[in-house]
Amino acid sequence: MKRILILNGPNLNMLGTREPQIYGFDTLSDIMERTAARFAGRAAVEWSQSNHEGALIDAIQQAHAGGYDGIVLNAGAYTHTSLAIADAIASVHGITPVVEVHLSNTAAREEIRRRSLIAPVCIGSIAGFGADSYVLGVESLLMKNQR
Ligand code: DQA
């Protein structure tokens, strides 16, 4: 069974109360538990969250070293700013695929959110489907030839 890590970046621990008009009322653990349960028997889905750039890089490197089959990454605002996270993804590219996901449709938001530094090094990007963005992210990693 494939092992997938869902990795969440800054402020996603505040889901539920954070700008619910954009992100909804579900908490991160609600979303993560629902997503993992949905793939029960098909994939082993684990998840984590950090507000810290370096910790996210460590998590990418550890998932790679640990032989995970892929990472679904919501890098939060680091999506738009972090060359270091982009480099971490690039350094595992070809072995540990990373899918970029966002709850909101970042292409329809402020100018700065339309730019993703991580998109070019991810195998693909999914945005705008709320909690289902994570489901679609995991699903994409279970498809054939996503390595
Ligand atoms: C987000 C979009 C980012 O622009 C924002 O900084 C977030 C959440 C999303 O899931 O829609 O923290 O990644």
Characteristic key phrases:
binds 1,3,4-trihydroxy-5-OXO-cyclohexanecarboxylic acid, 5 strands, 147 residues, 5 helices, globular, alpha/beta, 33% helix, five-stranded parallel sheet
Give the helix/strand layout:
Elements: E1 2-8, H1 20-23, H2 28-38, E2 43-49, H3 53-65, E3 70-74, H4 83-92, E4 98-102, E5 124-127, H5 132-142
Parallel strand pairs: 1-2, 1-3, 3-4, 4-5
Helix pairs in contact: 3-4
The structure holds 1,3,4-trihydroxy-5-OXO-cyclohexanecarboxylic acid (DQA).
N-to-C CA distance: 15 Å
SS elements, strand count = 5
Low-confidence stretches: none
Mean pLDDT: 96
Strand order of the largest sheet: 2-1-3-4-5
SS strand fraction: 15-25%
Shape category:
globular
Number of helices: 5
Bound molecule types: 1,3,4-trihydroxy-5-OXO-cyclohexanecarboxylic acid
Q: N-to-C SSE series?
A: EHHEHEHEEH
Main beta sheet strand tally, sense and closure: 5 strands, parallel
Q: What structural class is derived from the secondary structure elements?
A: alpha/beta
Helix content: 25-40%
